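Hi again,

Forgot to attach this to my earlier email, sorry! This is the prediction with flavin mononucleotide bound. I've pasted everything inline since the attachment limit keeps bouncing my files.
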Amino acid sequence: MGRKIKVCGLHLSPRAKGTSGRLLESFGLGVVDAGADFSVLSVADHPDVGGCRECGACEKEGVCAVKDDMSHFYKAFEKAERLVVATSLFFYDVPAQGKAVVDRGQAFWSRRYRLGRNRDGKPGARGFLLAVGATKGKDLFVPVTLSIKYFFDALAYPKQFDTLFYRSAEEPESLTPEHLLEARAAGRNFAL
Ligand SMILES: Cc1cc2nc3c(=O)[nH]c(=O)nc-3n(C[C@H](O)[C@H](O)[C@H](O)COP(=O)(O)O)c2cc1C
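Structure tokens for the complex follow:
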């Protein structure tokens, strides 16, 4: 048997068992169906990650000067070959707890764009975005797609990635069995 692909689920919503959490769980079942390793890292378990202070320290060493729970996320980003971001929308973007994690990705941006590391990207890396919102406008997922596109780029994942978006999904109960099956199939496909 070959080596297992490592897939990390990055959950950026504060409700551990909310709508995006439910979808991420199904996505993860699909990842495991495909024979890959799946682990989840959630801001719900690490709600005290502080925001980026723009102190510039990471531009010199590629390492963040703020020492807090973000260390768990940095370690996971280094290990994960594939990264699925699952999030709800709070005012069209990721919730504040998740935004702190995204902004702290600046340390990885500095490694690439200030220190010249990982310029060619991370070999075999792929990203995926799973997002939910309570409303249903045409442009609902435009801002979060842009935020996560540049987050992936900072982490040396490709700027092109597949997505699954669910509108009119305020609570986990809004999700149908078909939605969960769709997320599971997407997870399987992502990990092949
Ligand atoms: C502070 C706040 C802001 C929200 N902003 C939006 C929004 O801009 N657009 C939207 O469609 N839903 C919005 N919602 C609804 C959530 O995205 C929705 O309830 C989602 O299912 C929550 O997912 P979660 O349980 O994974 O956190 C907002 C909810 C909260 C609490």
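Helices lie at 19-33, 57-61, 70-79, 96-104, 106-113, 142-154, 177-191. The CA atoms of residues 128 and 162 lie 5 Å apart.

That should be everything now.

G.
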